[in-house]
Amino acid sequence: MTVIRAAEAPRFELPGIEFTGLASPSRGSAGLCTWRLTLSPGMANEQTHTLDRDEVFMVISGQVRITPDGEELGPGDAAVVVAGDPIQVANLGSEPAVLHVAITAGFTGKMADGTIVQAPAWAS
């Protein structure tokens, strides 16, 4: 068993987003990646991206949208984005939004401009 303590979990930041790495191949899980996603108030991805695996978003707090034309989700809601569907995360509220995310390890992403992205550091 591998334990990832909250105080020791690696954190990665992009503008308006913090990723807290939980399970991943480098943290004891060969097949599954999970992380906590914290979105700043009003944060919205500028462009969509797709993944080659299904991704699950579970809302802990806040009001979010996960896909460009998706429904508003709140605490306790979950969304499964099927591989290949566009993802464009947005925090619709005035407070930080917190989600847990899960996906199969080894995924690859593609940005809207066609750029291929390998699994990021929080999922490696």
TrEMBL record:
Q: Where are the transmembrane segments?
A: none
* Cupin type-2 domain ranges (all copies): 36-101
Q: Which Gene3D superfamilies is this protein grouped with?
A: Jelly Rolls
Residues forming coiled coils: none
Q: Name one Pfam family in it.
A: Cupin_2
Signal peptide stretch: none
Q: Which InterPro entries match?
A: Cupin_2 (IPR013096), RmlC-like_jellyroll (IPR014710), RmlC_Cupin_sf (IPR011051)
Q: What protein name does the entry list?
A: Cupin domain-containing protein
Q: Which organism is it from?
A: Kribbella deserti
